[in-house]
Amino acid sequence: MKRIALCLFVLFFVLTMSITAQQKTVTFWTHDSPQMTAYTATLIEKYQMDNPGVKIDYQYIPLSDYETKLMVALTGGTGPDAFDIGDWSIQAYYNKGLLAPIDYAAFGFKSVKELQDAWWPSSLSGFTIKGNVYGMPMEYNTFCLFINKAHFQEIGLDPDKDYPKTWKQLGEIGAKLVKKDKNGRYVRGGFDWPHLGPIWSVLELEPIVLQYGGSFLKKDGSPNLNSKEVVQGLKTYAGLIWDYKTGDPAIAANNSALPNLDFDEGKLSMWITGPWAQALFNKITKDEYVVKPLPQVDLKKPANILYAWAWVVNGKAPLARQKEASKWLNFLSSNQGGFLTKCGYLQPRKGWETSKEYKEFPFVDVFVKDMEHGQFMFRSDKWAQLGDVINRAAEKAILNGEDAQKALDAAQAEALRL
Amino acid sequence: MGSRSVFFKRMSRAGFFFVLPALLFFILFNTYPMIYAFWVSLLDFDLITAAKFVGVKNYVFLLTDPVFWRSMWATAGYVIGTNVPIWFVSLGIALLLNRQFRGRGFFRTIYFVPAIMSLVVISIIWKFMYHPYGLVNTLLSAVGLNKPFPWLTSTKLAPLAMIILSIWKGAPYYAVIYLAGLETIPREYYEAGMIDGVNVFQRFRHITWPLLKPTTLFIVVISVLIGLRIFIPQKVLTGGGPAGVTRVVTLAVYETAFKFYRMSLATTMSIIMFVFIALFSVFQFRMFGERRRAKA
Q1: A74/B261 Cβ within 8 A
Q2: What digits encode the pLDDT tens for the residues A11-37?
Q3: Which residues of chain B are within 8 Å of residue A72 when distances are taken between CB atoms?
Q4: Using the beta-carbon criterion (under 8 Å), do A96 and B46 form an inter-chain contact?
Q5: In a 3-state reduction of DSSP, which class is residue B131?
Q6: Residue B141 with chain A: CB contacts under 8 Å
Q7: The CATH number of B58-295 is which of 3.90.800.10, 1.10.3720.10, 3.40.50.2300, 3.30.420.40?
Q8: What is the pTM of this model?
Q9: Nearest CA among B175, B170, B172 for reference residue B119
């Protein structure tokens, strides 16, 4: 009897060990965004059921700590096999050898070209380095103008016809939409910028600079921050607040977890944000606002910004795990409908534009149309530092009304030392 | 004599073994990282790619970098702006709470609450209070200052906002130390003063203040050292902004290391800061020593 029990125990042990040995684990990290992490968790369950030999070990980390924890883990060799990063970081991660090319075969393609062709035009350009694709967009964004319909109607304007097409018009209409109390405090802003740090400052300012025909960097990659076009861009950016007085610069600095709160609560009539914001609105309904293209400097030469959070594969992970990670990313990026309806994330993989989810997503055509003349934020190995410098200049101009040229001369001097 | 010497040798050996665990801990987690940090400051190291020896390049870069000096000045401004008022405010609180009045125990407890609260929690609460339409501006509007002050988004007001918060948080702590100092002053001195007919100011000037000097010196040293290492309010309330005016050195070190991944530069900043703190500490210890000698 004892022998039989012993044999059964040994058999059980060996079977357990062999199952564990056969099971492949893919460690996967993302930043925390409630809708996205919840939906990702449901996809993990589905993927594991469809692939019994694979376990997805998922962790999500608050955005404020995300990159720090990620970098420390990657440095210490304990980084995840797959993770998400902002497109602006891709060059720095690539230069440090932290990214592996996406395995196109795991996506079912025969070449990188085939993989690229299966996504919207240019949508993978921000992740393509030296012919290889290093990231698959989890959310693909541009910034458009959100307008509160009732506020527009209140001042006798039709939001569908009279919406501002240029920054000048935005300033003029924004000023009319402002409401103040008897003490001169803003009760409602006509338009305001969120001041949430370097990424937001670049996202807001760079499209205006592009519209003026400029860029933050010269062709050789050196800083170009006090060029005529960037100065004009910053003047336009800050001028909405200081010249047109469309909003109180001190108020829009919301908590970064809720950057759209003021628009959602009706404290702002116009606001610039991405398609993802719609999933975070709690109060304002889709019938109460409209989304219009980003205002321009010159309507004949439209320009906008593209940005994305993308799933990438750890370049330091063993090859077998990289392959498994690519398969997992293929599965993730095949659920465009779910990501759109649950999280408000547009994903640029072709073939789902006729789907119900796509067609029913509010104002999807406006976003996609604006993406056509969009380009990704500037690329630099020193993006984080340059972004910090640009942010400081933007803050000086918008929060304190400092002269744009002076703020950008200082920024250029700082940038040249990096 | 010989047996005494053996005894002391044995004792010192035993003592050494008692101290050894703490010594090892100190060497491993304190001395070694400090030496390693100094080594890293001589490299170009970003955590991931291979490090390169660059000598004193990082020191030269930082000592001529206006951004770093702005952080140094932000730190100096914070330390002076916070600590000078805090010494007087804490002494004032201590003198008030040292008097006999009804509910003294209650007030002593209440005043100490900010000191025991987490600085992160306090910073989050003050972030809401400093909102243009938050409690601070609401209170100011009650006294006729209706314009909402942009406490955290103005380059002029944000450093002041940090100082006000820190005084509120720090003064009760130092007040308790002053209270302890006041308790040690013998009552007989005051009784003798009263017999001599001294008034309240003379009593403070000739009895309280001279006898509180050791306590004051202790508070000066401790508060300045704590001030030089401040990080949390600047990180939570403004993230170093607006336009870098609240980016104190510790925050600059953190960002340089974990946001920009310039580990060597961050380490060099720490070492420069360490030198400043060490110099200040030596200066303080000398002051202590001179005063002690003068007293002797």
Answers
A1: no
A2: 665 555 554 555 789 999 999 988 899
A3: 47, 258
A4: yes
A5: coil
A6: 183
A7: 1.10.3720.10
A8: 0.85
A9: B170
